[in-house]
Amino acid sequence: MKSVESIHKGYRISNFVSRVVIAAGILFLVFTLFYAFQNSVVFIGTSMKTAGILLGATILILAAAYFITRWLSPVQFIILLVLVGFGLRLAWILSIQTPPISDFLDMRNAALSAARGDLSFGSNEYFSRWVYLLGFTMYEALITKIFGASLAVLKVFNILFNVGTAIVIYFAGSKLFNEPCGRIASLLYAVYIPNIIMCSVLTNQFLSTFLFALGCLFVVRNGFTSKYSWTWIGLLFAIGNMIRPLGTFFVIGFVVFALLFKLLPAENSRRVPILTRTIGAVAVYFIVSQIISYSFIYSGVTEYPFKSQEPYWKFMVGLNQQTVGGWSQEDTDYALKYKLGEERNQAELKLFKERLQDKNAVLSLFVKKFKMMWGSEDASVFWSLYEINKPNLGSFLVKTERVMYTSVAFFMLISLVFLFVKSERKEHLLFLVLLLGYALVHIVIEVQTRYRLDILPAFLILQSYGIYILYTTLMKPFVKKQPAAAGA
Question: Which residues cross the membrane (predicted)?
Fold first, then answer.
């Protein structure tokens, strides 16, 4: 009797927590939508004009959702997804020759050296500070070694991984909600402006996002029932972390999801398998991460562990009032005055603590950072059109991105409202936990709007249900409602 009561109690607690998480998501979306609309007005014109364009975009998206779910078979849709995704991106990189700059240039030059067998760059100041950038650098070196030094080859690989992520989103959305939701989410990912135009930039975000998204797909498909999926989860998160240092964040999100929404409401007979597979995935992640780290050290690429040697840097910069938590040349100059290691770390920690002293200023900064991170225009236009004189194209792309992003925020708000009211399976909460956690972390650390691309799959998967609900409701006389996935 106690066992049954315990299970019911755990189930009730899990349901309560899920509602709290969804409510937090709704609050996040209310502010995001408000700030995104405000920012859109800056680029589009008056509030009325912006609202009218957004209404038109909403109708267009609903009509597209109707078409792709009503008239295409699954195979036909996948073909369309690949053709649209690859075609748009290929056209962009062939017409826009974005030169590598900033960190992208540093990694590119180091990759060229590595391809020639020269690994001396691993001991310079840049890669000694940011050791985790060596993973993507060596990936670029491998591609260069095999296919040659053409920038176009690396950009084509950007396309392949980006389209691959769209396919992963299709399967994840189909599993979480239903097949139409998978189609909606993946097609929006394929036509989302920043995804397309950033393919001409040598960013590490496309490969890492693909790996993290694929790891999440293993979680929601059968991560707690399959004998081997947990190994793939840990492995993919670890390799993704080698490319972009977000692996620990995804592991923490996975553990929170597993404990609150899988283990807590489970029957006693299922708790041990869930717990052991969760622990197993975490163990694989840390073991593989250590293997990667020591491999770079033993191969002579670097003498430092595979992580940032300045753990307080992003926190210190994140509290910079002048740059609203963005990168600062002044902070860079301050840090470089001190020797790399404990001396520099203590200097950065000291400045971080000083910036925390004015509590009112810090709270005001947090609001400004949220507004910039989740409401402002994406920086992809800057990175893609850097030193390319196409102001009219840039203006058009910014306006289009603003309309798409604001529309997506609206659809996601609708989705979460319905998910709060209606009892659904809990797998979708993995992506909401990740999204909210990502937003919370960036309240404190350094922010850039291009960082939104790292969590975009979660955003689009969650909002797809809102589109599905709207188009099946508004077009009910014309649409036969698709059956939901089992358990949804």
Answer: 20-38, 50-69, 75-94, 130-153, 159-177, 189-220, 232-261, 282-301, 403-421, 428-445, 451-471
Q: What is the pLDDT of residue 61?
A: 93
Indicate whether 267 pLDDT > 80: no
Instruction: Report how far apart, in Å, the C-alpha atoms of 358 and of each of 315, 348, 361, 364, 365 are.
Output: 16, 17, 5, 10, 11
If phi over 0 gives left and psi between -120 and 50 gives alpha, with beta otherwise, what is residue 486?
beta
Q: Identify whether the C-beta of residue 141 lies closer than 8 Å to the C-beta of residue 115.
A: yes
Q: What angle do CA 192, 196, 200 make, to 5 degrees?
A: 155
**The model scores a pTM over 0.90:** yes
Among residues 8, 146, 61, the alpha carbon closest in space to that of 414 is found at 61
Minimal CA–CA distance to 287: which of 331, 335, 246, 239? 239
Cβ distance 414 to 341 under 8 Å?
no
Which token pair is 167?
Answer: 């396919």
Q: Which tens digits make up the pLDDT trace of 106-141?
A: 999 999 999 999 999 988 989 989 999 999 999 999
Q: How many CA atoms are closer than 13 Å to the CA of 278, on its beta-carbon side?
A: 20
Give residue-wise pLDDT tens across range 42-96.
999 999 999 999 999 999 999 999 999 888 999 999 999 999 999 999 999 999 9
CA distance 375 to 287: 38
| The total number of residues written for the chain in this structure | 488
Domain extent listing, the chain: 1-475
| Distance separating the N- and C-terminal Cα atoms of the chain | 29
- DSSP structure string for 163-205: HHHHHHHHHHHHHHT-HHHHHHHHHHHHH-HHHHHGGGS--SH
Kindly state the DSSP code that residue 449 receives in the 8-state scheme. G
Are 454 and 246 a contacting pair, CB within 8 Å? yes
User: Which of 398, 368, 369, 367 lies closest to 384, judged by CA?
Assistant: 398
**In angstroms, rounded to a whole number, what is the distance separating the alpha carbons of residues 431 and 180?**
18
